[in-house]
DNA sequence: CCACTTAGTTTTATCTATTTACTAACTAGG
DNA sequence: CCTAGTTAGTAAATAGATAAAACTAAGTGG
């Protein structure tokens, strides 16, 4: 169930045709309103090739024609846009404290969504519940008339690189779960591509893939919630690496404090012992079944709370700096529920990162760091993005 | 000067032809002795396509025919190998304490090499000296009759991702050097592709690219010398990421000890303050102009030396574990001059990594970690590998 | 010696992108 | 208002690549 589509290493004429169709579709996705002539010059194809490719994409319902562009001395070109009326994708996130579901269009616009709070439960029960909610979402009036391309599921733990297998979800107590199989038995009628991935990687993918206009070369999404994880995406054939065992991006278990506190994983001094929902709960005595944010909001003025949040923020800043010096993405995006802890947590992280990122090069170029205030549906939407990319670049014959 | 060849996003028939030729050549490179029939089945091409592709590669001198294979009930196939007689590549490494030069064949076999000790000097002087040595190497009898494909240069610092620009080389005192331009003025007659990259990335590329048989999905090379750096390579279109500013792999400047010692870069607690040639020199009072290994060899029994090496080794182990939980390569390769410090340094690193790598997943699968005893020419050869890959996959018309 | 199998080549067919020519639609200037 | 010029897009013919089918080559086994 690879989300990183290996570029074929050889191919026939049909492959070439599909490659060019994908390229055209990607260009319009990235730059809505391009004309056929723009595409021809940007993709290094001839007018005729673009013309026939666009024609078939129009007929299949991927593209629609838009307004006439301003003339620049000759015949004006006709703008092309994604057809937002025909295809939709389902995405879901299984979080530690709830399920999030979305249905979105080719451009990532959310047509319908649902957020269901839920305490950790068994994989089977969770799958059955999610399946029911997905069925309900499917029947939502906003989805009437749409053809579904598939379903993507984001999960809170490392996912094996070459199989739809959740290796472990420490904060759910799950291990080696083939979650899609559990889902499928309840949703036999849902056609299309089924994918699953780690939630931070799905989120990274979505933040990268649904962006239009100027797109960064690479992007890391850092998800700070009950645990802390990350996903990196790069390349113009967007490539998302899970690593050999699915451990890529498990930055919560990088060691920041050798000989420090014991982590759930058994090692000492992991980042999660300093910055994570569970370590903050432990430090401040917030029970598992309380909402962390609601529990802390009235206590924000307490000295101990401020200290804990500042320490966690500083650790997050160090993590960000280490990512900068290990993978050096063009853009960092920070999401997850801890973001809502506010300035006492975020300011130390952001200021540490800003102050230290340029020491080595001595430059003044800042890596953009964006904080997502409400990341409720980010991972679910990202999982849908992975499905879309899989359909566009993968072996499917929908294009 | 990208070494990561972006897979074209669209293309014409000529592109398809080149793609298939590259695929054939790559298959034979990876698995010497394949027959045309093997290639056809592995590359998903027809016998006819492979036949004509092989024919042109034979004529151009990339491949040669070998022995007949054992028959399995029918006509035996003819083995194909790289032609090692026609093309050669130059590679060079500018190190802190010397210059290393190699000329190698398509399979990475070294035809000629040279190691010149040298104290840090200006970019201009270094380039002139290197150019002279390259000229001498070119005229070596071992290279007679070979056509040179180009020159790759490995440098001890971050290299910009989209331009042949060395951003900084802290241990040489260089900053923003267009080293290839300096070289070119002394070597106007050297044709072919000219590339430069960070030494750890070149080394990683070479260790990955020249491997035959079972090839890992991804590989990180950790170079432990005066400074400490790394390079990661992955994918079957081998992709090497330099990061936004060339800082990918600068693990020597990840923070392992918040609030620790000041590093050359100005930050505190960087890995290099714990494990690097310069920090070991500083801790044990070895002068810059002495050879670190020779200076320490007679002192290995000293308590202070043992303690320093053990501390450095533990820090290296932590670095390896953090790479494991950040990028999770299929294989780790450890090289650089510090490797020769021996067991007092290596054992703590290797045992820490081995003991802690499986805690999170609870599996028993070990990531292979290979230590290179003599890495003298690894980076130079890797730079040559990058040139070869550039010729095979790049826009060149040699295929 | 013959049936069978597998490797590789040759010939023919098919398919895709390009080339060339053409139509469409607008601007600018007299 | 008309014409020359420019750019967008389409249509028909051409070139070039892979695929398919037929064929030759070279082995095994009974």
Automatic annotation (TrEMBL), chains A, B:
Cross-referenced InterPro entries: ATPase_NBD (IPR043129), ROK (IPR000600), WH-like_DNA-bd_sf (IPR036388), WH_DNA-bd_sf (IPR036390)
Listed Pfam families: ROK (PF00480)
First and last residue of the signal peptide: none
Protein family (similarity comment): Belongs to the ROK (NagC/XylR) family.
PANTHER family recorded: BIFUNCTIONAL UDP-N-ACETYLGLUCOSAMINE 2-EPIMERASE_N-ACETYLMANNOSAMINE KINASE, ROK (REPRESSOR, ORF, KINASE) FAMILY
Name this protein carries in UniProt: ROK family transcriptional regulator
The organism of origin for this protein: Halomonas eurihalina
Source species taxonomy: Bacteria, Pseudomonadati, Pseudomonadota, Gammaproteobacteria, Oceanospirillales
